[in-house]
Amino acid sequence: MLADVPDVLKPSQQANLNADIKTDEFGPNFKVILINDQVRELQTVIRDKNTNRSDFVFYADRLIRLVVEEGLNQLPYKRCSIITPTGTIT
């Protein structure tokens, strides 16, 4: 799906990347993570056939953490007050 995306995107092109991807076929909850330099580096390392196992695991874990973090950002939340063990209300 991202095969048509050029190697280097201008900021304006990157902002429009989500609009170019047809998310209808995946459902309303499908989200696309924008590719920034960090994601591009992680993908490059894990796709390199010369990457050793420990580096692959490290970089794949980092990429997975970014995906999970973005997923958690999509969850609903509400503000609430709590009383800490010291009696402070936050």
TrEMBL record:
Transmembrane segments: none annotated. It holds the Pfam family UPRTase. SUPFAM superfamilies: PRTase-like (SSF53271). This is Phosphoribosyltransferase domain-containing protein. Gene3D superfamilies: 3.40.50.2020. Residues 36-89 form the Phosphoribosyltransferase domain. It comes from Caerostris darwini.
